[in-house]
Amino acid sequence: MDELGIDRELLVQTFLAEAEETFGRMEQALVALEARPGDEAILHALFRDAHTVKGGAALVGFDGVRELAHDLEDVLERLRGRNLGVTDALVTLLLRSVDVLRGSVAAAAGGAREEPAAALAFRRRLAAAGQAAGSAPGAGEPG
């Protein structure tokens, strides 16, 4: 316990359990999004889940996980704003992001101080996908 009476190990274990639950929910939502690309409720739920993982990671000091979740949030925000279109390739990339998040959480929980190189490389891919211009009909046009 720290000076505030917080049991860090319990906090980390709670985060790990909740993150795994969230990752499963995200995978199901992404599969559903592929079938219903215009479903705003799915997009909002995915964004909330990424935001929750980001906040939990920040709370337990898993900075690499927080940054990766933030990058995922950015892409999901572009989808929600219709600045980016849902494509099979993007859904596949988003599904892969859940796998990379899961691996980053495991690495951080195992004591890794640095973000895994594969996660850093993946973050670049995710950022590039999020910046794809003209990915949606009317993307970039004033609404």
What does this molecule look like?
This protein has 143 residues and is an all-alpha fold. Mean pLDDT is 89; it is low at 133-143. It contains five helices and no strands. It has a single domain, classed as Up-down Bundle (Four Helix Bundle (Hemerythrin (Met), subunit A)). The termini are far apart.
Note the main attributes of this structure.
Four Helix Bundle (Hemerythrin (Met), subunit A), single chain, disordered C terminus, about 140 residues, mainly alpha
Sketch the major β-sheet: none
Specify the CATH class.
Answer: Mainly Alpha
Distance between termini?
Answer: 52 Å
Mean of all residue-level pLDDT scores: 89
Estimate the global geometry from the Cα principal axes.
globular
Would you tell me which CATH topology applies? Four Helix Bundle (Hemerythrin (Met), subunit A)
> Any idea what the CATH architecture is?
Up-down Bundle
Rg result: 16 Å
